[in-house]
Amino acid sequence: MLRRSRRLSTEQFNEVIKKGKAFHSLFFQLRISRNPGEPTRAAAVAPVKMAKKAVARNDLRRRIYEIVSPLLPDSVVGYHVIVFAKPTLLPAGEAKAPSDAAVVEDLKALFVKAGILR
């Protein structure tokens, strides 16, 4: 889990939503905002459309934080990042769920695409 000091506050979250730049991949949408002089912070969002129960949404958010936490030390300093889960992350019906390795690689590629990860 990502430490509290590395997560976005509500004010920071709202600022990124207003002024942030969006990037997309198969499993995630990323919204970033530049904030020089501050450490890179992140937030994870699991929409109600994806999982109706709070338990499932919290589990998904924790899973995203587990993926993001090892990426932040290698990232460029001074960004605020919001990671939104897309419905392709939790397939409906009898479709096979994506492997954890595929999800991690997808998020890494998205961080590189956004210019946050070297």
Structure notes:
The chain is an alpha+beta fold. The protein has a single domain (4-114), classed as Ribosomal Protein S5, domain 2, CATH 3.30.230. It has helices at residues 10-19, 54-68, 100-114; strands spanning 21-24, 28-34, 41-45, 79-85. Strands 1-2-4-3 form a 4-stranded mixed beta sheet, sandwiched between helices. 22% of the residues are buried.
Q: Just name the CATH architecture.
A: 2-Layer Sandwich
Please report the total strand number as a whole number: 4
Poorly predicted residue ranges: none
Nearest-angstrom radius of gyration? 14 Å
Class inferred from helices and paired strands: alpha+beta
Q: Quick one: biggest sheet?
A: 4 strands, mixed
Secondary structure elements and their pairing?
Layout: H1 10-19, E1 21-24, E2 28-34, E3 41-45, H2 54-68, E4 79-85, H3 100-114
Parallel strand pairs: 3-4
Antiparallel strand pairs: 1-2, 2-4
What is the structure about, briefly put?
The chain is an alpha+beta fold.
